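We close this part of the discussion by returning to an individual protein. Part of our work consisted of pairing the sequence of a single chain with a tokenised description of its backbone. No coordinates are needed to read the tokens, only the vocabulary itself. The amino acid sequence and the backbone structure tokens for this protein are reproduced below:
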Amino acid sequence: MRVFISSVFNPDNWKEITYFPRYVYHICASGNQMAALTTDSFKYKIFFCFSDNGGRDWMNDCEPIHDPYQYPMLKDGKLFYLARFESEKKYPDSLVVYDFVKNSDKLIKLPKDFLCVGVSCVQNNIILTGFMNGGITIYQLDPALEFKKLYTYAADNLSNPLVYYRSKGADWIFAVENNGSRKRIAIIKTSDIGKSFETSKVDYIRNIYLHSFIEQDRVVKVWFFNESGNFQIFESKNK
């Protein structure tokens, strides 16, 4: 049995939520809207479910046209997710926009030569992160569902995983620097939309199992977990 708990701005006020669909394995939320990824009892198929009242009532299961490359993002009643429509490709070649109300999919081909590895919803903007022409490239999806290139950080020794975060007019990118058998975490910051960058390095790591940005006491922090068995936090110097 899977149990979900939630809290709103109070770590001492958790409550158990029991009215999610069966066989749910991922939840994403935007305000009172929630989307759930579920599977059948044999784990052969994936379904999307949607709620516009905080999860008390759910729409019928909707089967996507393609399995998501990664977990979707929910925005304005739509799911945004990456997918591979050409089976021989290692990276996704398309962005899918699924509209729960219209029960329709819109397929958007990714920019040419853009190896996209992540999609996120940051400050109500859909952001795509990946590699292009030897560097990390950031695209934003505009209201007309067109891709707008924001900038490229030129560094040919950086690799996945990539995590994107925006706070107080600054962009932050989490990446891994490969130097032969050695790896370091690279934290990249730009406060002027890619005109200039500040890069910080975290000492040698082996494997990263969890990585995310958090903001605490007006300080941006990177939270990751590696083979040491402990969480490690990189804290920015800028508030």
Notes: The mean pLDDT is 80. Residues 157 and 180 are 10 Å apart (CA to CA).
